[in-house]
Amino acid sequence: MTTTGTTRTPERPIDDDRLHALLGRFVGDLGATAGAAGLVIGHRLGLFRGLAEGPATPEELAARTGTDPRYVAEWARAQAAGGYVTAEDGRYSLDPEQRFALTDPDGPLYLPGAFVLALGALRAEPRITEAFRTGRGMGWHEHDDDVFAGCEAFFRPGYLAHLVTNWIPALDGVAGTLERGGTVADVGCGYGASTVLMARAFPNATVTGSDYHGGSIDAALQRAAAAGVAENTRFEVAGAHDFSGSSYDLVTFFDCLHDMGDPLAAARHVRASLAPDGAWMIVEPIAADDPAGNMNPVGRLYYGFSTLLCVPNAISQPGGWALGAQAGEAAVADIADRAGFTRFRRAAETPFNAVYEARP
Prior knowledge:
Helix content is about 50%, strand content about 15%. Helix 6 packs across helix 8 and helix 8 runs parallel beside helix 10. It has about 350 residues and is an alpha/beta fold. It has 14 helices and nine strands.
């Protein structure tokens, strides 16, 4: 007698140690999921900044921040249990590392802003669940507003820490060109954090930010004006394949190439828009070429966001590509090569980003 179908491999008995390890990860992950809201609440209400003024009881912190003491007490206990606040004898405080990471939205590290992005992205879960069934996409512009604000808050500290001091100087001759003048196209600029940083660092250069999301461009205009760089910046609502201008000395793509439905068309447009000796700087999430090399906490972070944001956005656009946030260097290099760039290298990197330089 013959049978059809696959033969199941006999299951091994449950290993208690492995099960307990899985339960430990579950408790940590569920606590982090519930705790994300507390980080955002602390961000929105200034609770972390209130603690930066000095140790406080819940009643004292509530008085400093104009909030309710009973809510503050539960919030402080949760933050202390999670390691974001220090608790001692009924009072709560921030140690130097917590103060550095939790209280300055304009500093080189600001953790609460990343949770704004996470909670904003999670609001799309019903639509993404349905997209798994249908194969349809969900455009960036269709997400909750916290995705746009949170994306800036998530990436801006890295740009503050590295863009002007490390990444641009790592490009051959670009910093000198921009110091003398020059032109930059900052594609997919979002709220304009990178645009403003470059315009402030290189006041003789002209920096043009573009994004297909009109609401982000409105915010970018306001940010540039507030930063005092309105005179050497301009902004436009445009996609990566049709932003305006030509003979740019530098074109920048910050954490956006992998989001595009047709990154090859975008790369070809960059190639046509560059000066003969211009440079294309592509900043992408750090990733190995083989998914097996991304099985780590950073890879988990990016795969999670990519499932909710990057892949659905790419699928929503014409082109048929969906690189995802862990595409890796080989995929980016292949796009640059197919678009007509003759030189490509990794110019710099951080624990979260790889910085590539492509030349005509």
